[in-house]
Amino acid sequence: MARVVVTGGSGKLGRAVVRDLAAHGWDVVNVDTAPPPADAPGSWTRVDLTDLGQVTEALTGIDDRYAGVDAVVHLAAIPAPGLRPSGATFANNVVATHHVFDAARRAGIRRVVWASSETLLGLPFDVPPPYVPVDEEYPVRPESTYSMGKAVEEEMARHFARWQPGATIVGLRFSNVMDVEDYARFPSFEDDPASRRWNLWGYIDARDGAQAVRRALTADVTGFEAFVIANADTVMTTPNERLLAEHFPDVLVRGDVTGTGTLLSIEKARRLLGYEPEHSWRDHVS
Ligand SMILES: NC(=O)c1ccc[n+]([C@@H]2O[C@H](COP(=O)([O-])OP(=O)(O)OC[C@H]3O[C@@H](n4cnc5c(N)ncnc54)[C@H](O)[C@@H]3O)[C@@H](O)[C@H]2O)c1
């Protein structure tokens, strides 16, 4: 059984990832300052990821719990701007990610998958995107300190991958993470489309986010790669043509924007990871 350390496994996305990886045969170790739910599979150790000593131990083995780690999924972070003062968000997230990359390299771990963010695409799009659907092909445009931290992490990943030839470091630029309970409020977005303009009406079901993580752990990619990870549809029933005409009238349309298909392109993830969303909010709300 291959062993994977999941950081932030007690969080919203992490809980789905821990469940999915355990269900697919991984021996899952969750390291997080917060405890997991009582029914979570795998083990949990309280680790502060801003402490390199603790991270190094977590990625090699902790006492009688385990020894040796095959892969790392790094999700722990303060997950949005505004939850903490920006300097505290930057200090926690960027330092933790540095320590995870550094400890993984020292431990000889050759596969790291971590949570980057859709915010790098230029959210909240006060400056409109260069084209739609947005994808990984234009330079990152962080507009907050939280997002700038993710930009720094992607830059660090580029260099850690260069320092460890043959290793794979995958950044998943997740859209806004949703659990099934969140879908009850989706129909209300129809009354106020502007309220979801900030991320081009995108979302990611936590279970599909977990699928993307699982596929990234074994996909045939080497070095640093970033992927936009969203669901196949928008949060709206209003078709994209109407939303774009009203909210982004001057933005170049460069691909398929018909119907309610995602405006956050997942074509690269489909092509290189074999990612294909299996869920939609439409399955849960009538
Ligand atoms: N939630 C979203 O909409 C969203 C969107 C894009 C990207 N992301 C990214 O996905 C990841 C997971 O987000 P989430 O929504 O599950 O967040 P969450 O807050 O629900 O979970 C994050 C977990 O990380 C832990 N953590 C934070 N700092 C830590 C530290 N220094 N040491 C140990 N544990 C620490 C927290 O205790 C928490 O359990 C984050 O990296 C976030 O930036 C989230």
UniProtKB/TrEMBL annotation:
Domain of life from the UniProt record: Bacteria
InterPro entries, alphabetized: Epimerase_deHydtase (IPR001509), Lipid_A_modif_metabolic_enz (IPR050177), NAD(P)-bd_dom_sf (IPR036291)
The residues covered by the NAD-dependent epimerase/dehydratase domain are 4-178
List, alphabetically, the Pfam families matched: Epimerase (PF01370)
Q: List the Gene3D superfamilies hit by this protein, alphabetically.
A: NAD(P)-binding Rossmann-like Domain (3.40.50.720)
PANTHER family attached here? BIFUNCTIONAL POLYMYXIN RESISTANCE PROTEIN ARNA, NAD(P)-BINDING DOMAIN-CONTAINING PROTEIN
Instruction: Give the protein name, as stated in the record.
Output: Nucleoside-diphosphate-sugar epimerase
| Organism of origin | Cellulomonas marina
